[in-house]
Amino acid sequence: MTFQILMQKGGNVSWVILGMSVASVTIILWKTGQFVYWWWIGLSSKNHPISKVLNTARCAIKENDEIWRDIVQTESSKQMAKVDSGLGAMSMIVQLCPLLGLLGTVTGMISAFHQLEVLGGRPDPAVLAGGIWEALLTTVMGLSVSIPTRIVLYGFDTLANKISAQIQHNLLEDTVCLRKMEGNTS
User: How confident is the model at residue 175, as a pLDDT?
Assistant: First the structure.
């Protein structure tokens, strides 16, 4: 069976699910590239999100505590927004694809029952099979996109949480050292 026939049997909903799968793969490739790049350049690079927060904290260390906290919080939020970018879209895909599959199931069953009505209540298994095909196919398609996307999203969430924790840890450690050095030079 060809791709075109599968998409035709899946009905309009199958095209929406296909679009979601393309979006999912695109985001997965982009985020994978982003995390690999950050791993490759390491913390010593000024382009790493953790380094950007720490550099901002070091540059603002002479400010009073409240201003310093605001500056660091702003930079930290900005960097975490970069780390988390795309994850919300992945989460939406994970949630919508099974619902789209269910919608395809409902439209397929409506089609099957409509065909039954058109035939005047005399069931023809071949005619009913088309609606049942649509029902089952869209369910499988929705779950086939949602499940792998959820697995990858879990991995990305874990990496994002590690980066966030590392920012907090390094910031605390760095700040204590800088404040001690500042106290010794006064």
Answer: 74
Range of the domain at 47: 13-97+146-185
Residue 92 in domain: yes
**108 and 132 Cβ atoms separated by less than 8 Å:** yes
Q: Estimate to the nearest angstrom the gap between the alpha carbon of 186 and the chain centroid.
A: 48
Listed residue (180, 179, 184) closest to 62, CA to CA: 179
Low-confidence ranges of the chain (pLDDT < 70): 121, 178-186
- Which residue type is seen at 59? C
Residue 73 falls within a domain, yes or no?
yes
Alpha helical stretches, state H, 42-124: 49-59, 65-84, 87-118
Residue 115 lies in a domain: no
Distance CA 114, CA 106 (A): 12
- pLDDT value at position 181? 66
Check residue 125 and give left, alpha or beta (phi > 0: left; psi -120 to 50: alpha).
Answer: alpha
Using an 8 Å Cβ cutoff, are 53 and 77 in contact? no
Residues belonging to the chain: 186
Q: How confident is the model at residue 115, as a pLDDT?
A: 79
